[in-house]
């Protein structure tokens, strides 16, 4: 039974290797920075909406929607940040 081998399980057939997209120059850091900018913009929009509510220029519904958008975006950003930190710590504890 020791002479039985399974061939070709771990390697793809010739010509069918893993195809990668051409690098567009955007990395994870750029995507994270763009997300941070978007959350910052939503925060400014929310603050503007609250100021307009206090001036009587907008209704409560619009201000609450803007505040909920920024709240959800901030929670998502914090979750991603926490996952990145966990992954970094996991990598730092690896032994080679």
Structure report:
With 96 residues, the chain is mainly alpha-helical. It has a domain at 28-92. Helix content is 64%, strand content 0%. The protein is built from two helices and no strands. The protein has helices at 28-55, 60-92. The longest helix has 33 residues, at 60-92. The protein is elongated. The model has no long low-confidence stretch (mean pLDDT 83).
Write the layout of secondary structure elements.
Elements: H1 28-55, H2 60-92
Helix pairs in contact: 1-2
Got a strand count?
0
Strand content: under 5%
Low-confidence stretches: none
Structural classification? mainly alpha
**Which percent range fits the helix content?**
55-70%
Write down the overall mean pLDDT: 83
From the spread of the alpha carbons, the general shape counts as: elongated
Largest sheet, in brief, is: none
Alpha carbon gyration radius = 24 Å
Taking the alpha carbons of the first and last residues, their distance comes to: 33 Å
Helix-strand pattern, N to C? HH
Please name the defining characteristics of this protein.
2 helices; elongated; 96 residues; mainly alpha; 64% helix
Sum this structure up briefly.
With 96 residues, the protein is an all-alpha fold.
């Amino acid at each position: 039974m020791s002479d039985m081998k399974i061939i070709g399980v771990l390697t793809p057939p010739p010509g069918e290797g893993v195809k990668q997209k051409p690098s567009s120059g955007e990395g994870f850091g750029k995507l994270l920075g763009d997300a941070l900018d978007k959350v910052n913009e939503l925060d400014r929009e929310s603050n503007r909406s609250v100021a307009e509510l206090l001036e009587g220029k907008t209704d409560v519904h619009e201000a609450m929607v803007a505040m909920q958008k920024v709240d959800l975006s901030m929670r998502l950003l914090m979750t991603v940040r926490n996952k990145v930190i966990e992954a970094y710590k996991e990598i730092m504890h690896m032994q080679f």
